[in-house]
Amino acid sequence: MGGALSAEADGDALPSTGKALSVKIQCSHDGSSFDVTELRGFAVTSDWTALHLYQAIELETGIHRQCQKLMFAGRQMEDDCTILSITRAKIEQLPERISLFLLVDKDSFPQKLGPFRPVRVPFEPRDFEIPKLTEQLRMQGFYWQMKTGVLEGYGLCAKAVCLTGQVSPASPVTQDAEQREAADIPADATEFAFSYPVADWERVETDAYAMGNWQTMNMLEGAASMKSFLSVGGYIYLGAEGQVVGVTTLGRPQEGDPGGMHFRNPERWNYEWTEILFQQGRFQNITIRSCVDLGAKMFCWLRPNEQLKLDDGTALDMQPEIPYGGFVYLFHEEVLSMDKQKLCLDRYFPLMHQQAVAKPTDHKGNIFRPFSLVDGDTSLLPGGAVVKGVPAGALGADSTDPQPLYEAENEDACSDDDFVMSTPGNSPLPDPKG
Q1: Is the pTM here over 0.90, yes or no?
Q2: In this structure, are residues 141 and 167 in contact, taking their beta carbons and an 8 Å threshold?
Q3: Which of 367, 364, 371 is nearest to 417 (CA)?
């Protein structure tokens, strides 16, 4: 599919040489078509490459360049191939209009999100210090705090005395008993909210010397899920008295596991919605490296049937369609940017109605699969990996078990089940995949 743009292709320098013409883009994925005649005031010419056309297609359709493939006469137009080259015609023979077919990779982010497997995190309710939940806090979200000493029993340590996490506005739990069991939702949960990664997630590290028994499966999987919750995010479930009754994080399903959370196709995001959520401090920086590589910068959880309102309480005429909630992704670090080339990729994924999909019962199917982070963290790796500060073999003879208790995401791949999360910090992130 389409590649990342070079500095020249993604900048202001679009070719002005060659023969001027228009390009009809025939979209194979939905049957629509449109003409590309110019971009940023530059007329299309026969010297434009696929990389230049990707930009114009992004602007028109919101389809990420990495998910685009252009075809002409049965041949794929490679990134650096010009319009003249793909037609194999002499410049004087070129017509004033040619047609290219657009094929779209609909199985990869950012054209697809999920599915994901919710996994219970072994935090205890007493581990969280939360405020008394008033109706205002339920509508605006709140912050929790945690003493880092609770991590030590699971082989984790933090270079801070206390961790702080931001929580989204709360929503009622509507799942039935079967759905709750499949999604690891506590039976006594009445409300839930999304907990974003903690501000100091980078300072949470694996420390084998802090764990009493590395050979216990529950300890290893507990450490992996805790690290995921703190660095990637997850859901906090609340009881009738506003107390924490359970916590989950989101993992990548194993092969053959359909996962418990599925999302509809992406919908284009409205800038007017961004302004309202920005005022509430809802957008967070992304921590999943494979998604940052594709240019995604910020994200936000939308609660089910959320209505976006102005300061005076008036609901906007146009609202995102999210009956079961969903996630928003922005492709620019400056949240309130007005650059159309940046805004065109902004999107949201509505969560689908949750089906009660049973988890695999075999051991392999229960392996927790976390995500690689933007700082290259690999401290929760398959069996045989070196844990920070621990010499090879120090974990015992079974530490190189060829069937690890949890698996880390392939750091170099950008698979179709990569999930995006974020941190409240504002550290600079890499440019889109180059």
Answers
A1: no
A2: yes
A3: 371
